[in-house]
From TrEMBL, chains A, B:
Record keyword Transmembrane helix present: yes
Annotated PANTHER family: CSC1-LIKE PROTEIN ERD4, PROBABLE MEMBRANE PROTEIN DUF221-RELATED
CSC1/OSCA1-like 7TM region domain segment(s): 202-470
Transmembrane segments: 202-227, 248-273, 293-315, 398-429, 450-470, 476-495
InterPro entries, alphabetized: Csc1-like, CSC1/OSCA1-like_7TM, CSC1/OSCA1-like_cyt
Keyword match Membrane: yes
Gene Ontology CC annotations of this record: plasma membrane
Protein name: Csc1-like protein erd4
Keywords, comma-separated and alphabetical: Ion channel, Ion transport, Membrane, Transmembrane, Transmembrane helix, Transport
Superkingdom as given in the UniProt entry: Eukaryota
Lineage start: Eukaryota, Viridiplantae, Streptophyta, Embryophyta, Tracheophyta
Length: 591, 591
């Protein structure tokens, strides 16, 4: 089944990538990092990059876009956007108001001086716009990083360029496929290779420590949040807390609340770590985060609960008789079968109900619509269901796979719950994927190899558990199952060899088909310009290789243009978020 | 120093590969393996390959050459060559003979019927030539494998094609850089990926067993070759053997002779294993064989002698107190310092003397010239010095590096011998490389990363030994050297990242320079046809895409042409062997 699924996903990926009627901007671009210092013979970074790639790809090179450090310009741009949204909100409120009272604000949310919102926002926008322009010019000319996006005139050239070593010193001019414009992590694109590597090592260390010692701060905080301590910190609470019923409820629930709060923080923390690692695209950060989450829950939930309190005594046993290691899981599992049986059942009966009815989103949308939304854009934003959130969904489902497989030897009834969980899941999530959630990026099935590897890992853990359980029961034919894990590992290697590389890189075969329409290269180029810099890049269709820094000085864009472009961008992205997935995303949803 | 050396070799490699005045046929070709079965819409394998690559590389594709199973045609061709050489030899002998006696042969070397050599050879050649032609046609049409060589019209296209994934199923149409024509292992080019992988695993297993248990058959045979046993097997020897002096010499030397014989067999055995592995080029097989030899001598000579007889007792100690593992080498090394000191001294004083004077080659050349050589070609062959034989030279020198580094802590005088060994070696081998040996292939410095990694490994072993020795002596500042191995490992990672990949693949940068002359693509194509099939491929310069099988039927080459082509090939290769290295090989020799 895994083989068939891999084959199927691989086919779908090939079909989606080679679609002749969808223009994917990322297929025309590559990312190049670790560009050496600008030589004296070259005017600037862009000149250097252009001449390098022109010499290598005389016919196929189209243009380049140097990565800049946008931290500051981004702050200003976000401020501007915030005030523009506030202004639109206030204007809509004013227009709807029957008493024609102008909406007002206070300086510090509910304290401070009162002032007119519309005037205030207009004033702020008027000061921010020239500031943004100045910062944009400064960024484009002065804050260039050692990376660039290179655009090619056809997909084949870009695909093979992304896979070829360019420089004699292999750690300079390193290339890679460009991420989709909408999921680019611009800040990480500018990182040097060694910095990236170092960050990765540090993040792995932090994750390992987190996995091993996550229970320690929880225990620590639980110890400090006893009722007695609470009474000292918040003395006005003591009359309430002293009541017998309240006291018993609180005493029982405080550790649970702390645990739930920490577990809720975990995905955010892991996502933050994955972004800090230096990963250039959102989809890859999600995969990295999902992987970390998987290790976390396998070790802390599955292994933790299974071996649990007996861990230390078990290690002592192991030292006496090292052969016992194979029997460890087989011995511990029967004791915890009931716990995991109810765990899967809970997930099955409650989890999918919540998933289908989405009570929290439902509630929040009506609250937002009733009290906070004034403009159409705000209403659309409140309605937007978001995407599937693979970063937590995938590891949780993989945990169920692991539990069901491992406990199937001892408590076969768990298989029924497992089958029900994944059958219902197929129906529910198919509906959610096709009709509810809207993908905010597209990785063309790259999540599958990640899941495949972890399902196989679960299978191998299960096979070892089975060997352990059979040995414990002194089952006569137990040695017959020993080849199973070896076969699983061989299968993993063959799968990796057969499919994995075409998920890492785009095969040349899939991009050799001619496009139905000749793509507009200027539009593709503009897709990659980050929104906060967009107004600084010229609009002319005819200009073949624009020198961004000088062009912006010659033809300063109008104030009106800036506002228009920001508005367009915003409404476009909202529309695409709201009015369903594009054909390319549908292809992958049906996986 | 390692950094500077890597940098230097990397520069030399880049310069040699981008030389604008040397045409390297392998830069215009790639190897493609694991081609799927021929679809029904295609005439044959060549048609399938051509149409596939034409669709991907419309302008750059030039031609393809399907790999065939040449086992049988090669046997016939070698027979033919043997008889042709014999004929030339006999004719030269006849011409030089003053008595005008025709040279004769006996059927089984010195027994059997006597017959006239010239007549016999002529008869054999006359029967073999049509047989060869028939077998050639059969091979080209019927024995096609799943691999092919693809030729491109320019170097850039070939370089990026060799690094790009082509097919959706990444285990079909797998590509790689083509080896030099003169070092192609044609038989291995036809292997499928999984077969190659399996062979590699089996070979690794055999090598591991060989390394661990090589002493066992030696001991076994030594036990069976005592004088008493010899007397039973060869009873006529007993009068000689019974003499006291002969007896004592024989008793002392038999184990040594057996050991020397086994050690002399080892490189041939390892080279045989490396070729069986499925490696497509001679240079890579030499590297693989050198690697195996390195592990062998480090484990059997260095570790074997150092820990030696105390191995089993040491393991028992370790079980009692596992912390001792760091002190193991530090403790054993002082006991063997004298042995290795004399080992290095012997290598230094005797080894380079033999290397410079080459007494065996000198003797063999004069014996051959006096008694066996009749033709000019035979004389040239007897004179040819061969190549450097990296497969045994490199691991032996790396053993000296390891010994000198590790023993420098205990017996610092070994450093003097080490410095003398490598200084003299620099002088001697520079002379040998430039003036004596003739490289039979060119890998453009790919041996260096292999050596670099092993020098670093020696350095790390040395650093651990040092820590062990310092701990044993309870040296107060010993912990200060603990960061050294960590730094060495970090250095290895940085070096690998910076340089290694441009040794694995050709960087695009180095092949983007224009060639001084437009290469003759037909000549490049013909370079890759194996000698035993050469006469079956058409000679026409004008024909752009020859269909080998049909063309050979339409224009059967003349008998004379065949002999001429064989002769030309032979004398050309001899001339190039004898009259010095080509410019491209000189570039790498000066490394």
């Amino acid at each position: 089944m895994l083989w068939k699924a891999y084959n199927h996903v691989s086919e779908l990926r090939g079909t989606a990538l080679s679609a002749p009627d969808v223009i994917m901007p990322e297929q025309y671009a590559i990312v190049v990092r670790d560009i050496p210092a600008v030589p004296k013979t070259r005017k600037d970074r862009k000149d250097q990059v252009d001449s390098y790639f022109k010499s290598l790809y005389a016919d196929e090179f189209y243009d380049s876009l140097v990565i800049t450090d946008n931290t500051e310009v981004n702050i200003i741009w976000e401020d501007l956007t915030k005030y523009r949204n506030k202004l639109a909100h206030a204007e809509a409120k004013f227009a709807a108001s029957k008493t024609r009272t102008r909406p007002t604000n206070k300086k510090y949310f509910i304290f401070g001086k009162k002032f007119d919102t519309i005037d205030y926002c207009n004033k702020m926008i008027a000061t921010l716009v020239p500031k943004l322009k100045k910062e944009q010019q400064k960024t484009i000319r002065g804050k260039q990083k050692d990376s660039a996006l290179i655009f090619f005139t056809n997909r084949k050239a870009a695909t093979s360029a992304a896979q070829t070593i360019h420089a004699k010193k292999a750690d300079t001019w390193t290339v890679g496929e460009a991420p989709e414009p909408r999921q680019m992590l611009w800040r990480n694109l500018g990182l040097e290779f060694y910095q990236w590597q170092l960050r990765q090592d540090i993040v792995y260390l932090i994750v390992a420590l987190t996995i091993l010692f996550y229970m320690i701060p929880i225990t620590f905080i639980t110890a400090f949040t006893t009722l007695e301590k609470l009474k000292i910190i918040l003395p006005f609470m003591s009359p309430v807390v002293d009541k017998a019923m309240v006291k018993s409820v609180l005493e029982g629930s405080i550790p649970q609340i702390v645990l739930i709060a920490f577990m809720a923080l975990l995905p955010k923390f892991l996502m933050f770590l994955s972004r800090t690692e230096g990963i250039p695209s959102v989809s890859r950060a999600v995969r990295a985060s999902s992987g970390k989450h998987f290790y976390f829950i396998i070790l802390n939930v599955f292994i933790g609960v299974t071996i649990g309190g007996t861990l230390f005594s078990t290690i002592k046993d192991l030292q006496k008789n090292p052969k016992q290691i194979w029997m460890l899981l087989g011995k511990s599992i029967p004791e915890n079968a009931t716990f995991f049986l109810s765990f899967v059942a809970l997930k099955l009966f409650v989890g999918y109900g919540i998933e289908l009815s989405r009570p929290f989103s439902f509630f929040m949308f009506y609250v937002n619509k009733r009290f906070f939304c004034r403009t159409a854009a705000e209403e659309k934003k409140a309605w937007a269901p978001g995407d599937m959130n693979y970063a937590t969904r995938v590891p949780n489902d993989l945990l169920i796979v692991t539990i069901v497989l491992c406990y199937s030897v001892i408590a076969p009834v768990i298989i029924l719950f497992g089958v029900a969980y994944f059958s219902l899941g197929w129906l529910v999530l198919r509906n959610q994927a096709l009709n509810v959630y809207i993908p905010s990026y597209e990785s063309y099935g790259r999540m599958w190899p990640h899941m495949h590897a972890r399902i196989l890992a679960a299978l191998i853990i299960y096979q070892f558990t089975m060997i352990g359980a059979f040995s414990l029961k002194q089952f006569y034919y137990a040695p017959l199952v020993i080849p199973l894990p070896i076969l699983s590992i061989a299968f993993a290697i063959v799968c990796r060899r057969k499919f994995y590389y075409s998920f890492c890189h785009t095969p040349l075969e899939v991009v050799c088909a001619e496009m139905r329409e000749t793509p507009n290269l200027r539009a593709i180029y503009k897709e990659f310009i980050p929104p906060c810099l967009r107004s600084e890049y010229p609009d002319e269709e005819a200009q073949p290789v624009p020198d961004a820094s000088s062009a912006s000085l010659l033809q300063p864009p109008e104030y009106k243009d800036l506002i228009k472009s920001v508005e367009e961008k915003e409404s476009q992205s909202l529309i695409s978020n709201l009015w369903g997935p594009t054909p390319e995303t549908e292809a992958s949803n049906s996986v």
